[in-house]
Design brief:
Strands 4-3-5-6-7-8-9-14-13 form a nine-stranded mixed beta sheet. A hairpin with a 4-residue loop joins strand 7 and strand 8. It has eleven helices and 21 strands. Helix content is about 30%, strand content about 25%. The longest helix has 22 residues. It folds into two domains: about 325 residues, Rossmann fold; about 100 residues, ANL, C-terminal domain (GMP Synthetase, Chain A, domain 3). By secondary structure, the protein is α/β, with parallel strands linked by helices. It starts with a helix and ends with a strand. It binds 5'-O-[hydroxy(phenylacetyl)phosphoryl]adenosine. The site of 5'-O-[hydroxy(phenylacetyl)phosphoryl]adenosine has 21 residues, from helix 5, strand 7, strand 8 and strand 12.
């Protein structure tokens, strides 16, 4: 759809959403009233920037059902966010919302190359997390065959993958690495598997990690993005050109803001992604601050889709480390490490405070030959890794090698940072 037409479509849906949210959700009504705004004031898409933001804090204050715009009897599914601090966020779906969600995920999967001929192994944990159910219904919508494996039990994952001839693997990128590693350890030739596509999402991952997974599993690995507050997976996904994730703009309006000033930034700027839902019934989100740092590219993609593409996220504002005044995202370190021959894609970042200074220690797993190398060679390796990280981040870090297989393996979302400053 040409952008002009799309924007007209978005405006109509936005107006309907604002009316419904204002009428049915006290939180939105109070916020609008305090700014003297009524939904009718929004007559163009640019008016969106006048509306108040919605934050995680708003959702916590309205726990569990305060943000729902429909009576509970119309809700047919409840999920929650995977937040690790405070109360989780509860999200609800009507029947229409589930249909919309399935279609959005089907779209992401189709863009990645999945068809009705595929056998899709879902290795996200089934439960309150939106990942498994989202991809499950998306697969069924396309007509593919779902294997609802759920997360963990890696040996069984591999057995099923071999026996059932899974052609698509769905999980977090860090779990894909864990699976790839186990396949190698078991001496299984990846050529003997039927895998051809990986749909990985739920956490940030680098291009270097993508190449690593692709070469180990012999697949095309695509990225897809979403968050439970907004719908779950299905918000955005890569097409086969892998040049940014197309956001489903008929269901969401995306803005990029400066997280400090909260001003909307011009196209192409890096900042915090803000999303407004324009098609959902039960749980409308108006200008939701995702905390994810990315940028938007409005150029038409080589695939022909006109929908805006978001870059791989750098990470979340709340994951950002400030080391000696420099902003550091774990994904930047990952990009450097995974590209170094001999480094395994397993690392841990330990932040500590020495006196008044923050220090960052990067623990990396290396292949056995490097770990057991003579001291001199090992020191040269450490030196090289330290310099490469320094040249990308502009800040010195301490690098420590740890024994092969000593860092925790992840079955869901990886947690790579240990912050000793708050202990
Ligand atoms: O992670 C939804 C999802 C499931 C997306 C499966 C894709 C695949 P939450 O648990 O609410 O929902 O976590 C949302 O995860 O704000 C991002 O910080 C992060 N995230 C999700 N996908 C990506 C991605 C699901 N592809 C939070 N790249 C978001 C980077 C991602 N970060």
């Amino acid at each position: 759809m040409p952008r002009e037409e799309l924007e007209q479509f978005q405006l109509e849906r936005l107006q309907a959403t604002l009316n419904r949210a204002y009428k049915n959700v006290a939180c939105y009504r109070t916020k609008f009233n305090s700014l003297g705004i009524v939904p009718e004031d929004v007559t163009s898409l640019s008016d969106l920037s006048q509306l108040p933001f919605t934050t995680k804090e708003d959702l916590r204050l309205n726990y569990p059902y305060g943000m729902f715009a429909v009576p509970l009897r119309e809700v047919v599914r409840i999920h929650s966010s995977s937040g690790t601090t405070g109360k989780p966020t509860v999200v609800g779906y009507t029947k229409n919302d589930l249909k919309l969600w399935s279609n959005l995920v089907a779209r992401v999967m189709t863009a990645a190359g999945v068809t009705h001929d595929d056998v899709v192994q879902i290795a996200f944990g089934y439960g309150m997390f939106t990942g498994a159910f989202g991809l499950h219904y998306g697969t069924e919508t396309i007509g593919g065959a779902v294997i609802p494996m759920s997360g963990g039990n890696t040996d069984k994952q591999i057995l099923i993958m071999q026996d059932y001839k899974s052609s698509v693997l769905v999980c977090t990128p860090s779990y894909a690495v864990t699976i790839a590693e186990r396949i190698e350890k078991q001496g299984i030739d990846p050529h003997s598997l039927a895998l051809r596509i990986g749909l990985f999402g739920g956490e940030p991952w680098s291009e270097a990690m993508r190449s690593d997974i692709e070469s180990r599993l012999l697949i095309s690995a695509t990225d897809n993005y979403g968050l439970s507050e907004v719908v779950g997976p299905g918000v955005a996904g890569e097409c086969q050109h892998k040049n940014g994730m197309h956001i489903a703009e008929d269901a969401f309006i995306a803005e990029i803001i400066d997280p400090e000033t909260c001003q909307v930034l011009p196209p192409g700027s890096i900042g915090e992604l803000v999303l407004t839902t324009i098609s959902k019934e039960a749980y409308p989100m108006i200008r939701y601050r995702t905390r994810d740092i990315t940028s938007l590219d409005y150029a038409t993609c080589s695939c022909g889709r006109t929908m805006v593409r978001m870059k791989k996220t750098l990470g979340r504002t709340d994951d950002m480390l400030i080391i000696k005044g420099v902003n550091v995202f774990p994904s930047q370190i990952e990009e450097v490490l995974v590209a170094i021959e001999g480094c395994e894609p397993h690392y841990q970042l330990i932040v500590d405070r020495k006196g008044t200074l923050d220090v960052l220690e990067v623990c990396i797993e290396v292949r056995e030959n490097i770990f057991f190398d003579e001291m001199k060679k090992q020191r040269a390796f450490l030196d090289m890794v330290g310099k490469r990280i320094d040249s990308v981040l502009g800040v010195g870090v301490t690098v420590r090698l740890v024994e092969p297989n000593s860092l925790e393996r992840h079955e869901g979302k990886a947690s790579r940072v240990i912050d000793r400053r708050i202990l």
